[in-house]
Give the backbone structure.
Amino acid sequence: MAEQKGAVMNNVLRTEGLTKTFSGFTAVKNLDLTIKRGSVHALIGPNGAGKTTVFNLLTNFINPTAGKVYFNDQNITAMAPAEVARLGLVRSFQISAVFPGLTVLDNVRIALQRPQGLATQCWRSDKILSRLDERCMQLIDSVGLSSDRHSVAGELSYGRKRALELATTLALDPEVLLLDEPMAGMGREDIGRISSLIKAVSQGRTVVMVEHNLSVVADLCDRVTVLQRGEILAEGSYQEVSGNPAVREAYLGTDDD
């Protein structure tokens, strides 16, 4: 019994029989997914495998047809997305919109206002809001944007905008951070930069990511779940799943390809 309780406490996020059907098409089928606390866990698979749908289900942006989602052993299946975020399960795009006409500092300050209860209090004085600046600078420094703190966000390079989005997401101090294709559209230099940032911010929290760049997955992730047609095809370390013949055929390609 003690071992079972310990296993539950070590699982920060899990699903039971999670299923989503759209007009007769089953995008996710009977998914039993377990995310270990403190891990970096990747969901990979070919296009149409159901990865983004799983993310939407985990954060309650869509409701499941069947099944349950548990966060810290609490059933969150019926909760609103905002409630889920307040618990500490945060998907990057929920607060990652960059205000292009504002500075980096102002973008992060706005993101910090919500957990401080100041999100809708536009009448607050600069003196009161300036109390957020120390934490703003900590977040900005953590993503390597200290030299850009007074730069207008819309003038940043694509990779630096993504770094700013990561800072605004971290403003909610998530326990579990879900990143949907964080390397999409990036060049090699930006991929290296954002990959290093993800490795850094994963210290002390859990990261779940959908990512097509398998080099990034191999470098960052402790565990990999391979999806195919909404079901789990394989799970394990990157070395284990990349050597699985079924995975190679479905996702990585066969030797004959």
